[in-house]
Specification:
Elements lengths: L7 E2 L22 E4 L1 E6 L12 H10 L2 E6 L10 H14 L3 E4 L15 H4 L16 H13 L4 E3 L12 E2 L2 H6 L3 E2 L2 H17 L3 E3 L5 H12 L4 E5 L1 H5 L20 H13 L4 E2 L14 H4 L10 H10 L6 H16 L7 E11 L18 E11 L2 E5 L3
Parallel strand pairs: 1-2, 3-4, 4-5, 6-9, 7-8, 9-10, 10-11
Antiparallel strand pairs: 2-12, 12-13, 13-14
Helix pairs in contact: 4-6, 6-7, 7-9
């Protein structure tokens, strides 16, 4: 009952929270209870790349970060572009996931952009369709995918990137790249494809979601589209909200795609997430081996991990200073992603010590991936337990 809950409850009805004997130690005013977070953009690397992450380690990492629902991207081996290939991932989810894991199906065969995947066959078992990691280059192919997805009652979730504008770049085409002799990725490579896709969905009416936006132009384009009534949502990641390319070091843990951009882009992203233009927070949790991330900015693999740091970073650097309210943070981490992707919130919550201060240390991560741009950052807020469907799926060791 509500009166039995001593911990401070955020965004939930205390009467719906069930704290068993194994969680009794956390039922004090010292702790806070938050609804289960939802991340619509993660990479758990199975099947095909279990040396980077597994379904077991990825879902445990999510649980430790307070997440009870995630959507896994399809850049796997085999790519889930058919019922047969998708089944391999579904089996792994059933066998190893400790939280709710919802897979994406690929938009195109092999994510190559040449032929549509078996969208109809996969539709009953996928959350949406995406070629994450690659933009669909051909206008006709993307339009055909949108038309088919709409017929199936599914959403297109797009990694927006124009290949012809990349020119071998690997960090933002800004001051750091110029000063250190690096090849840059221009902002237009992102926003130009977002603009193209918006024109397509104005014609075909497909529900559409943009992955990990990073530029001020993208924010402006999406804000305008929403004002025109276009069925579009978008996400950004914690690192884009608190860092820019002035934070770069010659270290692979600062290499992600899209890259950290200019301070003006960061400011636009913060404004966008505060005014609702940006609907949700997504980590793009993308683990790699230590060897793959030890090759500097140019040669390291794209991708950083983020499930175990997302809430502490946002709470410490946006909520605590008064930039964002706790209510808005819960909206972008819990309610907006669930509403857009049709994911219910059941008996799912996490328990936090919001006063706990510590330093981010990847050696403590549950994830097999250790490349974090936040290594060494001072944060406040530690997850001490997570419950999914009434089961304790994470509990801090005594």
């Amino acid at each position: 009952m509500a009166e039995q809950i001593k911990a401070k409850v955020f965004g939930m009805d205390a009467a719906t929270i069930s704290l068993g004997d194994d969680l009794a130690v956390f039922n004090t005013p010292k702790y806070a209870i938050l609804p289960g977070f939802c991340d619509v953009h993660v990479h758990f690397r199975e099947p095909g790349f279990s040396y980077k992450e597994t379904m077991v380690s990825g879902s445990a990492s999510a649980a430790r970060g307070g997440y009870t629902a995630v959507c896994t991207m399809p850049n796997l081996k085999p790519v889930p572009d058919s019922v047969e290939n998708l089944k391999q991932q579904l089996d792994l989810i059933r066998e190893g996931a400790s939280i709710h894991v919802y897979p994406y199906g690929a938009i195109t065969v092999g994510e190559k952009g040449e032929a549509l995947a078996d969208l109809a066959g996969m539709a009953p078992d996928v959350i949406a369709f995406s070629d994450d990691g690659k933009g669909v280059q051909a206008d006709e192919m993307m339009n055909d995918a949108m038309v088919k997805a709409k017929e199936l009652g599914k959403m297109i979730v797009a990694h927006c990137e124009v290949n012809d504008l990349l020119h071998g770049g690997y960090i933002h085409d800004g001051k750091y790249a110029a000063a250190h002799g690096h090849r840059g990725i221009c902002s237009e490579s992102e926003w130009a494809q977002v603009a193209r896709d918006i024109e397509l969905i104005k014609r075909n009416g497909c529900p559409y979601h943009v992955c990990h936006i990073s530029t001020k132009e993208t924010v402006d384009i999406i804000r305008k589209a929403k004002a025109e009534g276009v069925d579009i949502t978008c996400e950004t990641g914690p690192h884009y909200l608190v860092m820019d390319d002035s934070w770069l070091q010659e270290d692979g843990r600062f290499k992600m795609n899209p890259p950290l951009r200019d301070e003006t882009d960061r400011e636009a992203l913060v404004a966008g997430i505060l005014d609702g233009t940006i609907d949700m927070l997504a980590t793009d949790h993308a683990p790699h081996s230590a060897e793959e991330k030890a090759k500097g900015l140019e040669k390291s693999a794209f991708g950083v991990v983020g499930l175990e740091t997302a809430f502490p970073i946002m709470y410490t650097y946006l909520v605590k200073p008064g930039i964002m309210t706790m209510e808005r943070l819960l909206e972008v981490m819990v309610y907006a992603p669930r509403k857009r992707f049709g994911l219910e919130l059941g008996n799912e919550f996490s328990i936090w010590d919001l006063e706990k201060e510590y330093t981010v240390d990847p050696d403590d991560f549950v994830s097999l991936g250790k490349a974090s741009p936040f290594t060494g950052w001072k944060v406040q807020g530690e997850c001490v337990a997570t419950v999914c469907d009434g089961r304790v799926v994470w509990k801090k060791a005594e």
